[in-house]
Amino acid sequence: MPLLAACGGSDGGSRDGTTSGKDAEKILPAYVASNVVTPDIPSRNGSAVGFTGKLDLADLKTSVPKKLGKGGRVTVMSPFWGSPPKDGNAYYKAMNDLIGVDVVWQNQDGNTYDQKLGAVLASSEVPDVVVVPGWNMTGRIPSAVIGKFADLGPYLSGDAVKDYPNLAAIPTDAWQRSIFGGKLRGLPMPSSYVSGIVPLYRQDVFEKEGYEVPRSCDEFMALAKDATNARAKRWACLDMKWTAFNAFGVLSGNEKSLGWNEVDGKLIHRIETDEYLEALEWTRKLFAAGVVHPDAELGKSNAADPGPKFAAGEFLIYNQDISQWWSRTAEQATQNPEFKIWGMDFFGHDGGDPALWAQNPASIFAFVNKKASEAVIRDVLAVANVTAAPYGTKEYMATNYGVEGTHYTVKDGVPTKTDQGNIDVMNAYVMIASPAATIAHPDFPEVAKGQVEWQQRMGAFTRKPSFYGMQITEPARYTNLSNDFEQLEDDVVRGRKKIADMQQAVSDWKSKGGDELRDWYRKILDENGPAAG
Question: Which portions of the sequence form the region Disordered (predicted)?
Answer without folding.
Answer: 1-21
